[in-house]
Amino acid sequence: MTRSAGEVNSLWSSLKTSVYGAAEKMIGCTQRRYNDWISGRTLQFSAEIPRSSCRNDDSFRQIRNMTAKSAREDRKKYWAEITTSMEQASNVGDTRKPYQLICQASVKLSSPCDSVRDVSGGFIADNMTKVERWREHFEHLLNFYTEPTASLLPSTTQPPPSLTYPGPSKVEIADAIKRLRNNKAPGEGGIPAEIYKSCADTLEP
């Protein structure tokens, strides 16, 4: 029996509501944590972004730009306060306070490492040199075999390998679901990965 698009959407909406309700009751909700230096003004701008009807709308872009600008101002103010506190502590001979501030800032504002090595194994600091090194790397990777390899192939004609593979087992599907990363935007279904992971062993393929 073929269902209409409206009927399918209605059934999915009902299922989604039931799943969310059961997950909230059994798992609970977690509050999103923000950095201490983010002001209430920035959070207010950020809360307005999901209410925009379309990402291509001018109001959406305006709110997003205002949020980014406010966050940059908050971060600049935060670092200015850190610098002032360190200077004041240094002027009075307090060495413990600057150390605490450095530890505090380094833990909360850590960023992924983007280090790149040259051909001899040394680290590259210049951004333009990093880009050039990446270009050399992929040029070598994608053009490794520059000569025809027909002479290296066997002369006998062999049938192509079969591309028919068995489908994944329930154990493999459950393992793949458990490996989903948390705190990511849900897909087209609108259900977060945390909900799938909570019942990975009971889902049917």
UniProtKB/TrEMBL annotation:
It comes from the Eukaryota. This is Reverse transcriptase domain-containing protein.
